[in-house]
Amino acid sequence: RSTASWKAAKGATSYKVTVTTKKGTVTVKTATVTGLSYTLGKLKEKTSYAVHVLAEPAASGAKPATVYVTTK
User: Fold this and answer.
1) Model pTM score
2) DSSP letters of 31-60?
3) In the 8-state DSSP scheme, what is residue 24?
């Protein structure tokens, strides 16, 4: 398991979290969370994932912040 965390965004009431493979081809999971972290479970070994986090409500034109996680 890996945990992604982030700093609070001003005015955000929740965060949309989307996990994909690093190549961006397969959506592994999408969730909306109210906290400042998300635990990634059931990931394949030796695989790179991208965790995209977007504050909700999002500012006009806002893009998700992305963190890359590679499993061992």
Assistant:
1) 0.81
2) EEESSSEEEE-SPPTT-EEEEEEEEESPPT
3) S
